[in-house]
Amino acid sequence: MDDRQFRNAMGKFATGVTVIATEVEGEVHGMTANAFMSVSINPKLVVISIGENARILNKIKQSKIFTVNILAADQQELSMIFAGQLKEHREVEFDRLDGKPVTPGAVAQIACEVSAEHVEGDHTLFIGKVTDIHLEDAEPLIFYSGRYRSLTEEKTAAL
């Protein structure tokens, strides 16, 4: 199998879209990612996967903190900003959760401290101990087969 076939197969798994953020010396750094999952409830742990060429990789190693911001359906532009898909520079405002930078309006904001990191292939997996969570009542932004999508509620007939 070639790299493209592998990438296409992985794209068949529908995911939410997140912005991973960290802060070093007062400067916030962010990256769009869909490689995120929960690991454990007790203790509360999540994992993110960051590519070896991502600029944020060394920032997280240095700061030992990150946030996962699960984007809402109306935040596609924010996803594109942090994915480097928009040509013109746009300022992004951040709120704070447990002192860590989070994106306003996200469906979920998850503040984490790095508890472990593992290099696997061309990515580093960061295990994050969750220190705080903030939730909003909104529909999530979805990514499937290389395109942004949205959820549609299926109407079911009462039996």
Automatic annotation (TrEMBL):
InterPro entries: Flavin_Rdtase-like_dom, NADH-dep_flavin_reductase, Split_barrel_FMN-bd. It comes from the Bacteria. Pfam families: Flavin_Reduct. Keywords: Oxidoreductase. Transmembrane segments: none annotated. SUPFAM superfamilies: FMN-binding split barrel (SSF50475). Residues 10-150 form the Flavin reductase like domain. Coiled coil: none annotated. PANTHER family: FLAVIN REDUCTASE, FMN REDUCTASE (NADH) RUTF. This is Flavin reductase family protein.
